[in-house]
Amino acid sequence: MAGGVKKPVNIFKLKNLDDPREVFNYKLWFAVFSFGLMGAARGVDEGLISGAFGSKNFQKTIHYSSYSLKDQTNIKANVSAMVQIGSVGGALIAFLVCDRIGRIWATRQLCVIWIIGIAIFMSADGHLGAIYAGRFIAGLGVGQTTVVAPVYLAEIAPASIRGLCTCIFTGFVYLGIVLAYFANYGCSVNLGEKTIARWEVPTSLHLMFATIVLTLSFFQLESPRFLIKKGRDEQAIQNMAHIRHLPTDHPYVVREISAIQLQLQEEEEATMGQGWLGVVKEMFLIPSNFYRIYLGLTSQILSQWSGAGSITLYAVDLFALLGITGTNESLLATAVFGIVKLVAAILCALFLVDVIGRKRSLLIGITLQSIAMIYIASFLTSLPKLGIVKKYAVPKSHKGAATGAIAMIYVSGFGWALGWNSMQYLLTAELFPLRIRAVSTSIVMCFHFANQYGSSRAVPNMLLAKANGGINPSGTFWFFAVVTIFGGIWVWFTIPETAGRDLESMDRLFSLPWYKIGMHGNQVAEEQDAILSEKEAVIERDAGRAHEVENVERV
């Protein structure tokens, strides 16, 4: 086994894979569930805040009506985006915590921070400062989930189903969104808009998920790759054997541990310096590693500014803009939007990411998103007064086109879940070598949240009329369309296929000059895989002959 690309995976027939059947056991799936559940941290917040902010009680509590239109827009954007600001710091903290105390204890401390932040937010009693502070602190915890969970999942998953295991995190993002959307809708219908329970009950979903994740962490084992990095090889072997449900001396476990040890040894020998300076040099002065940093950072810019993430955050307002009137109707449409994205994430995890590969899944999602953005932008261009002139409604002659635009909101969400939102976590978690994996993932996720904050903060102002400092709703969606199309072109030429490849064999994809990696990296890597496989076969054959000779001599 040289770590090369395997045959397409049928998730319902895992026994047909080359891996031992014992590898796909309940211990693995329980670990995947426990850490994948952290995806709900982001999903719950994205799904809750727009509906919670829109409740009459919350707005009354913060004296929202006493502010000017521009101040109201800024307050709404700040409250919504404060978690993203905190998440920038959280993602940065994550690599320090991950590499210092391990993936398990990192999970426990982020849950405590998450709970403290939400508790401050819920007890703010209308004080904007406390609301901002609570959501910022919660963001410090939420931001860490995007580093800790994908890294742990990528490190414990067998190569053949690493895409599925890591995409479970994305699936829980959308499960959190769906639960949050329906919690908002249910509380609006049954509790009314004027009671504090209208927004506090949905917000309590944060506390529920944080407590569950914290509890489950006490039933999980530390990542074997982290333990090897720390020189605790014996414990790493025990943990790997436990997760794989195999004896410690099983060839599959021995081979996997040996590959991790060899890669770490090669990384340490190649490091240009000692300590943190050596790590920094390794990240930015080794061309193959720097190219991976470039892929991670650029993918975050293009994904966050493609608009689909902002649509999730401001779905209620955008559905209202396109003609769905009434609070309950907008909330219900938003809840269905969440279901569409959840279904797309499940389809991606089960049938695409490990079957047709990461790159093709991403391009399919970007194509759908591009079509949707172009249609919505065209529709809004045909009605320049929509969203600009107060109380202007979609004319009857455009009702059909408006329905199409609403459908395209769902298509954009479907494409986003298939493409960028699934791949941005998976690719980030699996691209980097072990020695720099945590710090590189943290840097990329810092960039993720910085751009998410910029996008979520900018969109309310972008949607304003040009006279008020915006670029109109139509200009906003044309901007999204251009970024999305450019993102598809960039993916085609720069990103190599990583599906089915061992984490320890990723370096082979990046052995070419940077401008050839996206188009030719896989071909070169597969050629290297074949050469290594032949060498391994020769070594095993020679070892077998030597063993036979030894037995004959003993006789």
Could you please describe the fold and organization of this structure?
This protein has 555 residues and is mostly helical. It is 76% helix and 0% strand. The chain contains 21 helices and no strands. The radius of gyration is 25 Å and the shape is globular.
Distance between the termini: 33 Å
Range of helix content? over 70%
Kindly state the mean pLDDT as a whole number?
85
Annotation field: number of helices: 21
Give the biggest sheet: none
Spans of at least 5 consecutive residues whose pLDDT stays below 50 are none
The total strand number stands at 0
Along the chain, the helix and strand elements come as HHHHHHHHHHHHHHHHHHHHH
Radius of gyration: 25 Å
Please state roughly what percent of the residues sit in beta strands, choosing from under 5%, 5-15%, 15-25%, 25-35%, 35-45% or over 45%. Answer: under 5%
Helices and strands: which structural class?
A: mainly alpha
Oligomer: single chain
Rough outline = globular
SSE topology:
Elements: H1 26-36, H2 40-53, H3 56-61, H4 69-122, H5 128-156, H6 162-191, H7 197-217, H8 224-229, H9 233-244, H10 251-270, H11 275-285, H12 287-304, H13 308-313, H14 315-321, H15 327-352, H16 358-382, H17 399-418, H18 420-431, H19 434-462, H20 472-494, H21 514-554
